[in-house]
Amino acid sequence: MLKLLKGIVLVTVLAIGMKSFANYYPNGWFYPHAKDVRCFANPQSARCVIVNSFGAPLFCQGVVFGQSRFGAALQSHFSGWIGAGQSVWAFVNAINPYNDPIIGANVNVQCRF
Questions:
Q1: List of E strands, the chain
Q2: Among 2.60.40.3230, 2.30.30.60, 3.40.630.30, 1.10.3720.10, what is the CATH number of 31-112?
């Protein structure tokens, strides 16, 4: 009887854990901690580098955002495979870098195995 009760408790805990895992990682997408993302901005362009430091290729997709001095919002969408130990650059260019330069950049990236 005690073994049956332990089995029921174990199955219940596993079922709750699997449900919360599925909610935390919907559709297999996750945010790997070993992925390194950095952005650089100059008046002409905003560039972001995404580095895969996992031992397996990742499929990543995301958006690079740039902000100009007078408020123009620039964005560029990207997606593709990043090999193990490889990096990908994503960028946006200013419309008129002399009169309205880029002052900042940000990137949103989602990756999965």
A1: 36-41, 45-51, 58-68, 73-82, 87-93, 102-112
A2: 2.60.40.3230
